[in-house]
Description:
The complex is a heterodimer.
Chain A: E1 5-7, E2 10-13, E3 19-24, E4 31-37, E5 44-50, E6 53-56, E7 65-68, E8 75-79, E9 88-95, E10 103-104, E11 108-112
Parallel strand pairs in A: 2-11
Antiparallel strand pairs in A: 1-3, 3-8, 4-5, 4-9, 5-6, 7-8, 9-10, 9-11
Chain B: E1 3-5, E2 10-14, E3 19-21, E4 24-26, E5 32-39, E6 46-52, E7 59-61, E8 64-69, E9 74-79, E10 88-96, E11 103-105, E12 109-114
Parallel strand pairs in B: 2-12
Antiparallel strand pairs in B: 1-4, 3-9, 5-6, 5-10, 7-8, 8-9, 10-11, 10-12
Amino acid sequence: GAGVSQSPRYKVAKRGQDVALRCDPISGHVSLFWYQQALGQGPEFLTYFQNEAQLDKSGLPSDRFFAERPEGSVSTLKIQRTQQEDSAVYLCASSLPRDSPLHFGNGTRLTVT
Amino acid sequence: AQKVTQAQTEISVVEKEDVTLDCVYETRDTTYYLFWYKQPPSGELVFLIRRNSFDEQNEISGRYSWNFQKSTSSFNFTITASQVVDSAVYFCALGLKTSGSRLTFGEGTQLTVNP
């Protein structure tokens, strides 16, 4: 497909479990972003990659959150020891270099029970 | 710090009515970008428009139009002759030149268009 692909679409985790969320950006897109969207809220920035370099991770809420993009394409957002407050939709977006509009995936809805 | 305010949490209209979604932003930067995104129930954020801070010309695209006014720090979005398919959550967002494509989103406006 031509769009940003995220998997899984839904994830239920028990509190304390680790989860990994995957993002396949649009081919050729240099920039990749992760956003967290709580229910009824706007998306909030988590982290940003340019190719394989993580240039901004200031939005990650705690050290339990970790993101990587080792080959500059697919990215994984990992959350360790999940907590109930981590329940949200995690959106991935990609774009051409700076200032280009973001193209978002459908997101992964994480529910921590 | 940047902030985007969408004061209208929910709007409900009847098909064919015109509707305006309000957006007010705050930033100290002089170079910035403003965006509108549509989020249908499927969850994907669909890009609608981007304007830069130096271009205050209003824009029209089909039934959609945008009114950018720097004097009031507003970037409002009007849908003319609304349709049921326009029902979605609409987000206004602000991006700074200095932070690449990192966006600050408003809390969104849920638009429901009833037949």
